[in-house]
Amino acid sequence: MVNVTDLGAVGVSRYGPKLLHSLSNIRLKGLTGKFDILDGQLQSSTFEIINLNGNGERVIGYWTLDKGLVKKLDQRNRTMERYTKSKERLAPVIWPGGSISVPRGWEAPTNGRRLRVGVPVKRGFEEFVKVRKDLSTNSTIIVTGYSKDIFEAVLRQLPYAVTPDYGSFETPDENYNDLVYQVYLGSFDAVVGDVTIIANRTEYVDFTLPYTESGVSMLVPLRNNRDKNTWVFLRPWSLDLWVTTACFFIFVGFAVWVLEHRVNEDFRGPPLHQIGTSFWFSFSTMVFAHKERVVSNLARFVVIVWCFVVLVLTQSYTASLTSLLTVQQLQPTVTNVNQLINNGDHVGYQRGTFLLGVLKNLGFDESKLRVYDSVDQLDELLTSKDGIAAAFDEVPYLKVLLSRYCSKYTMVEPSFKTAGFGFVFPKGSPLTDDVSRAILKVTESEEMRQIESKWFKKESNCTDPNTSLSSNRLGLGSFWGLFLIAGVASFYALTVFAVMFLYEHKHAWNHSNGEPHDSSRWRKLVVLLRIFNERDVKSHTFRKSGHYSQNATSIDASPNTHYHPQSPSTSQDTPWPQSPSSPSKGSSFSFFSDRRRDEHENEVHAEVGGEGKAEHNCGTSSQA
User: Taking Cα atoms as reference points, which of 516, 511, 335, 338 lies closest to residue 412?
Assistant: First the structure.
């Protein structure tokens, strides 16, 4: 008995070759398509791809071995087709609910119908939403605008497919309260448009998160203040900076005078001349036009530091004044609400908004309120003589105007806050939370910027309307470090000079000679002041110029000292040899020798000690 499970034991039928030959020659069309064997292989047929939707079906394409997916068969160009598996070559697929969008998860709880979306019909500000009828059907509406693009971008972020079906809604006064109430009545499943989130509307419907900037602001015209302010040159600096700079000019002039008085003829002379020279020298550094020479190293140190400070101050002042006269020319005509109320000015608001009640509560008389419907009408009211002084509206509307007329108007600080624009859904709708989360994704993406650029195109010369147009004055806080450096340098130089001066004349300060303490201190101070008022004949400046003559020194000496140029009792010193450049014949010059100057100083110090008034013969006359 043969084992039927042993295939190796099964014999070969003598009719096998005939059967194979017969099957190879068969050509037929069955349930699976064409039946054709070539080289022992069954050739694949062309398959239809059918879209089943409910009880209906539709062919959306074909699949062939040589061409892959195609929308239509073309036997004539069959060899020219390229093999592809892309579904883009098929007709659109209709998914349950009549949507052509591919489902992204579970079906939205809309009972298998489209989402009925109400949109407002506006006469102005059509950048947010615009409704027009399709001329071909005269019934289908076409909705465009910023709000609609944001809404559809949000729907694409949902984990399921939602197909909106837009319907228009028109009210005589464009009051959105009636449109929002239609959602409460069930006429619409949602509202898309420039609908503001306010408290009284939330009692009937739910709002998503806002998708625009919030707040109500005041729009006012700009005015050009260039060349209209007589004292505009004072504005670059604040008052404290002006006062501090003036005080330092005086202080530096005094410091230079102290350091130069004994060694520089430019800072000597009558008191009024010395005061004028000191102030002139200090203030001339502002334009770097000081012509008086400075010979003391300490004074040079002070002047170098002060010139650096003056350089920074003048350059900063020039830059700030240039900015005031060129860039920062535009200033708002009105800065606050109270100014409008007190002046009795007319103000405007957009028709249909909730701002009518708000303006009345702020104190505006109803006769001073004017309505506008569009951007062009608002611009006309703001520019006409009998128009309005300012307009109150929400920030998104005002940005539309500023995108067109950025050089004519500006927004001032918002009067109060609002929640911005949001999408409306019925109470308890599961779409509210999902759409709110999707709004966050869209606002954080690049798509949001692209939508804003599409509908709110700014002029090339427009700047941010929230940027302050008033120039900030330069204050003392910006330069206190420079003034600190100048002050420390001046005090350091004066301190070094005082120490050196007191050390050089310490014998005059330490000599009391039995006088009362107060009297002695006063006399010492007077003598030191007299010495300070004299020329420092040891200075190299007087040696080079040859001006430390006997007569000149006598003039600067103490009034209590008597000079007898030709007294017989005066010891005669050999005069210095006359230089080749000495004065012409008839002039007489006499000079102190080193020994003679020492005798003069000893006599002055003897006067401090109370030894009596000494009469000095300060020199002898010599004929040239």
Answer: 335
Rounded-to-integer distance, Cα 388 and Cα 95, Å: 55
Tell me if residue 320 falls in helix, strand or coil. Answer: helix
- Higher-confidence residue: 461 or 15? 15
Per the model's pLDDT, the better-predicted residue between 321 and 8 turns out to be: 321
Is the separation of the CB atoms in 590 and 575 below 8 Å? yes
Burial of 618 (0-12, 13-18, 19+ CB in 10 A): buried
- 576, pLDDT greater than 90: no
At 393, is the secondary structure helix, strand, or coil?
Answer: strand
CA angle at residue 135 from 130 to 141, to 5 degrees? 40
| Tokens, residue 209 | 């998160």
With a CB cutoff of 8 Å and minimum separation 6, the contacts of 498 are none
Q: Which domain holds residue 73?
A: 18-89
- At which residue do the structure tokens 């003589």 appear? 385
For 307: left if phi > 0, alpha if psi spans -120 to 50, otherwise beta; the answer is alpha
What is the DSSP code (8-state) at residue 579? Answer: P
**Residue bearing the bigger pLDDT, 231 or 575:** 231
- Between residues 131 and 14, which one has the greater pLDDT? 131
Q: What is the CATH number of the domain that holds 355?
A: 3.40.190
Question: Would you state the structure tokens that stand for residue 367, as one six-digit string?
Answer: 């006769």
Q: Tell me which DSSP letter residue 513 carries.
A: T
Q: Is residue 622 part of a domain?
A: no
- 10 Å CB burial of residue 128 (0-12, 13-18, 19+) is buried
Q: How far is CA 148 from the centre of its chain?
A: 33
> Does 5 map to a domain?
no
Between CA 109 and CA 102 the distance in angstroms is 17
Domain end, chosen from 284, 315, 346, is at 315
Q: What is the mean pLDDT of residues 43-64?
A: 80
Structure tokens at 397: 């509307």
Q: Which are the contacts of 322, defined by CB distance < 8 A and separation ≥ 6?
A: none
The DSSP output letter for 472 is: P
Cross-strand partners of 394: 216
**Number of domains comprising the chain:** 5
Mean pLDDT of all residues in 141-163: 91
Rounded Cα distance, 262 and 515, in Å: 29
CA angle centred on 49, ends 115 and 159, rounded to 5°: 30
For residues 28 and 574, give the distance between their C-alpha atoms in angstroms, rounded to a whole number: 152
